[in-house]
Amino acid sequence: MSTTTLNRRMLAYCASSLGMTMIHHTFNFYYVKVFLNRYHIQESWFHFAQFLFLIWNAINDPLFAVLQDNAKFTITRTRRESILYTAPFLAISFMIPWFQFGTSDWMVGVHLIVALSLYDTMYTFIGLALCCLFTEISTDQQDRLRLTRYAQMAGMLGHNTILFVEYTSDSLQNFVAFQITAFFVALAGMSLMIYTGLNAHTVWDIKAQKEHVEEKAVEEESASQEPYWLKTWQILSEKNFLAFVITNFFQEFHKTFLSNFTAIVCDYLIPSTQVPTAVRSIFYSFTGTLGGMMIVFGAPVVGHFGYFRIIRCSFILKICSGFIMFFFIGRSNPWILMLFILIDTSFTGASNSLFNMPLSDISDHDREKYGRKHPISSTVYGANALVVKPANSLSPMLVVAVLNHFGYEQLKDGLLSFPEAEGVKDVMFAIVCFYPVVLGLLQSVTWSQFTIRRSISLEYRVPEPAHV
């Protein structure tokens, strides 16, 4: 495809990267804090909601993968149309958590269940289409690295939304201002995704292949003879896929903890009496943007050494940093603690940004191995999500259970003596330090089993269709 056409498609992809980051980062950053500290949800309801979320979160990706790879509805006809028609519903679902259903315990619990389920449904449907766009815009490794770099630039802008929300809402102290700001975040994110839906054509775009109707019909007939369960099993039984998804599960486990609990932990371990609230707001913004900056400026390093080595180095770094922070520094210096959290979130975010590349290579490898005419990208990403998505629920469930076991509920209500409160803070500090150590060790083992070291060569690039 021409450079101009490719750049236009990359721009459309990055528009959704920006919009999705604005919405998703804001949602993850605030929903746990809002339900725990403002709506005062009971722990039993919180765990029940997360359990239901875990189940739905795991099964909806394979379900949507079947729809996007096989169904002939308008909304699933192309990746871009999936994004175009679902964007308004994602914006609406994003707003649901910020308007309380009621004050009774069961009503708050139902509110969380509805909020998580609806939001994840829309986010997953769009996210799956966006991931497939990444794979299908180009099969060239350098193009994918460039697209990763551009997407990170967009993501850096999106993460700054937290700084804006923190400023307008005074760190949730002015909740009405928070609700108004959230509305404009939803509107902006929706608009960007609609732009993607109108412009993000790929070489597999059905509308762009009208001249290949007869060939396409033959391919569809052949594909229909291979059931979805067989294709899924072929993916799940692949050694490289298993190594990747287990590593990705631990990555998501860690990333979810950082997204959901950074603000809560910092409220107690980095009090405003030692670090001004304005500085903390800027710090929250940097936790999302620094990882993107590392990818933007470090792309040549990734291109030289390959994503495998870079991801492996990130695991080693977070193991060492967590070990040093807990055993040699401690929690007495809030500024160093902020630096540690910043390093942890940045390297976790940066390495996570590269995870689309091995998953795309797995999709390409599957297409070559089984001689498929078209990549089954949605099926690959759906199978990945089937294993990885439960981490979104298991991680907060684990942390909330541990914190409440040691008295976090009483700490919130100011019912603990000073020594007891310090004990809970010590537990928080231990969690912050040992999350990267334990998960990094596990990831180092599983990632060593991933053996794909290259993308499919240029001869597998699909020729650009006409009239796109």
From TrEMBL:
Task: For this UniProt record, give its keywords in alphabetical order, as a comma-separated list.
Answer: Membrane, Transmembrane, Transmembrane helix
- Annotated coiled-coil segments of the chain: none
**Which InterPro entries does the record cross-reference, listed alphabetically?**
MFS_trans_sf, TMEM180
Cross-referenced Pfam families? MFS_2
Thylakoid in keyword set: no
Task: Give the transmembrane ranges.
Answer: 12-32, 44-63, 83-101, 113-135, 147-165, 177-198, 282-301, 307-328, 335-355, 427-447
This chain belongs to the protein called: Transmembrane protein 180
Per the UniProt record, the source organism is Littorina saxatilis
User: What is the taxonomic lineage of the source species?
Assistant: Eukaryota, Metazoa, Spiralia, Lophotrochozoa, Mollusca
